[in-house]
Write a structure and sequence with these properties.
Elements lengths: L1 H16 L3 H33 L4 H19 L1
């Protein structure tokens, strides 16, 4: 079964290689649309894992924002 899948994939790759540039772009666009949800979910999962690993409080965020605002304000004058 796996060998059949591999040979099918190789046939698809050969077929894509033989396409014109316009048709390759069409295939790429189709794949991007089909894979967008899966890629987005994967990215979201990474963000959530990172947020759990490096938690930050609203107070820390506010302090950093205020610090950056102060520096930008001072640099304008």
């Amino acid at each position: 079964m796996l060998k059949t899948l591999d040979s099918g994939l190789n046939e698809i790759k050969k077929a894509v290689k033989s396409l014109s540039l316009e048709k390759k772009i069409e295939v790429l666009t189709m794949l991007e649309k089909e894979l967008f949800a899966a890629r987005f979910k994967s990215l979201l999962k990474e963000f959530r894992e990172s947020a759990r690993k490096y938690s930050i409080t609203i107070e820390e965020i506010t302090g950093e924002v205020e610090s950056v605002r102060q520096r930008r304000y001072e640099n304008r004058n």
